[in-house]
Each structure stands twice: as C-alpha cells, then as structure tokens.
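U., I forgot to send this yesterday:
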Amino acid sequence: MTRDLTIKLHNTKTRKKEVFTPISEDDVRMYVCGPTVYDRAHIGNARPVIVFDVLYRLLREVYGPDHVTYVRNFTDVDDKINARAAESGRDIGQITDETIDWYLEDMGAIGALRPSIKGRDHDRAMPRATAYVAPMVAMIEDLIEKGHAYAAEGHVLFRVRSYAEYGALSGRSVDDMIAGARVEVAPYKEDPMDFVLWKPSDADTPGWDSPWGRGRPGWHIECSAMAHELLGAQFDIHGGGNDLTFPHHENEIAQSKCAGHDFANVWMHNEMLQVEGKKMSKSLGNFFTVRDLLDQGVPGEVIRFVFLSTHYRKPMDWTEKKRLEAEKTLRKWRQLTDKVAIDLSQECATEALADDLNTSEVIMRMHSLARQGEAVALKATASLIGLLTDELGGWTDTKYVKSGGLYVGANAEVADRIDELLDKRQKAKEGKDFQTADRIRDILNEAGIIISDGKEGADWEFGSSVDLAKLDGLA
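Result:
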C-alpha cells in the first residue's frame, strides 16, 4: 500500500480536478452504473468498465484490497428486456441470466476485475435490480411522505421542481431542459420534467405488489436504492459514461438528496467512443460487440491497450490501425518480459496514474522502459493498468495477421522463423550487405509475406496467397 500517494480526480460536480480524500481510508467506496442485460455488450459499453477497473486497481494499490468496495449493478428489469422476451418467446429470467454470464465473460476477457465488497463477496457487489425492489418501494414511500413525489394513475413521479439544485451536475436549468429535451408528456404528470419512480405492470410484464398497485420501478430509482443499501447514505465515488450525466445521474442525485442521503462526493464520467472517426451505429455498419472482436481473433489485451491509450475524459476512436499497432507493441513487450516476475517496487508510473487516471502517460512511460530494456519495471508498470498479466497472456502463441480481410493464424514456430529472418535482414542492412537483405525480402515476398518497414523495425502480415515452403530457400 502507498497511502501517502496523492490521488487527483476530475469531479464532474465541481468541474475541476481535486485531491481525492476518502470519507474513510479503511472503507473507500465506489458505485458505477452497470449494463441493462438484454444483449451482448458493444465496445462502447466496455469503455467505462475499463476506466473504472483502472481506478479500482489504483484504489486497491493505495488503500489495500481489503479497504476498497466497488459496486456495479445489473439492470435486469427494463422495457428493452421485456421487448426482447416478447420477440424471442423466451423467459425474462433466462435472458437476463444468460446476458449477465456473457457480460462477465467478455469483460473478464479484456482484463476487468470483478467488483467486490472489500476484496470479497463479488456477488453482492454486482447487485441485480430485481433483488432490491423492497428498498426502492421504501425510498419512494419516503419521497411521497416528504412531498417530493406523488402517485397518479398507478404511477409515482418525482417532483423535479421540489429539488432546487436540479441540473447542477449537468449545468442546465429546468426550463432549458424542457426547451431542449424530449420529455414524456403524460396527463398524469404535474410538470413535463417530472420523472417516473414507479409504473404499473400488465399481466405480461414483470411486476411487484406495492402501495400503488402491481408495478415495477423506474430506472433512476434503482441505482439510488442499491447504492444506499450497499454503500450507505454517503460514499466516495460514483461513475459512468457521460451519456448518463443527464438525465440518469441528475435524477439519482435529486431523489437521493430529497430522501436525506448525502450520496456521492465525487462524480466521474468517461467520454464516448467512435469507430474510424464516426459514431458507432448499426446503420453505418460499424457497430460491433466485444465478443465480435474476440471471435475475430483480436486479443482482449489488445482491446484494453487501445482503450487505455486515450485519456478517459477525451473522445476515443477505435481504428484498425490502432488495433494493429497495439498488437505489435504488446507482442514485443511480452517477449521482453516473458521470464520476468512482477516486482511492484520497480514500477515508476503510479503518480501518473494517480493524476486523474492518466493512462496515456503511463503507456508512454512503458514505451520508454521497453526501449531501455527495463523489463522488470515495464512489467510492474503494466500491472498497474492491467496489462502484461498472466490472465491476459497466451495469445502471443499464435501470430494473428490480416489476410484478405480475415484473421488467420501462424503458429509460434512459423512466426518465430519469419521474425528471425527479418532480424537477419536488419543486421544485413546495418552491415551494408544489401544483397543479402534484398534476397531475404524477395523470398519472403515470394512466400506471400508482406513486409512493412517502420521506425521500430519491420512488421509483416500474410498476403492473399501464402506458400511457406518457399522459406526453405533461406538458410
């Protein structure tokens, strides 16, 4: 542990970077909004998982695993889930159970640790909304009693104008929100901005008994109730993507504060993700899931590296070029650190990570360590952000290269043979033996191996037609 390390985090609430001071150093608590479980997680969903996994690792490093609680929920009651069940004819519980298993498997494949209560009790740290309906009902009853909510036609709605500071997190006034946002107009609402805490359920929709009839909770009340039950009335950090700032997090604050809870001290939000410079969209054909990438042979560690190369508060662009560069870099680093044990006393970038999770700076320092051949420090620094770990290893046994738009593998023996020839070519060029260098290049090309020379040496990939037997012509 390094409790003397100063952590600075950008607080959305105050719009500035602040020194992080936990309520208790023996009980540091963080809540992050999790997925609605009706389908596979797309790569945009993975960004907050990786961002807050890195913060979780940093908090564990500074305060110790037994003193950090990280809660991330599953929304398993939602109209999208109901629609998926209706269209598929499957039971809602089957869909949510399956999707949760998929999510945990895919997030594990990109190196995300499972949330935990002080390093233990992972299941309780990943609450399902359906297990906390009773606390939601109790919170709603309290809000009605205090005049912040009202029942109407089987619904319960929160009176937005009853909370004077509504809009402070997102920096908007209520009147501006009404003018600029699509709000649900309903006859049972006192004000267009009022939002649903409880809504009625029909016979085909999941529902629970309540003082307002059979129904189900609204989305916003779920996180307020679960955070209160698991972390208390006041906790340290609340995180999520910046698309949640309004209305979800704004509504969480309003209902929790009006219920008498101090709620979160620090609010953190990551920026969104694009693909090849464009917003990810099924209509543009650039929408894909984490599982899609994994099934194509893209290692989870490569996905993680690409994400961490951009600071979490900057928009991130997933590109094929970045993926290929990440894979090339990680191969070299894994080769350099192959026989090295992790020695955290050697790491040299904790202060960079503590500066508002500056993972891009950490990776720059890792490049410098690799150039200097500092294998021990490189591996220790990488472990801070969940790279070069044993859990994410093994993928370098197969060299994946692009051929005709598909990913094909060369076994380790073939990959090593090609790399050996390229090293021999490089040494020939350095010794001005250009005849040998050209001969190696020509035979590699004849074998269908495309060479790309760069500042850090040569890289290669398979062409559309490969004949590895031609390599036998090189001694």
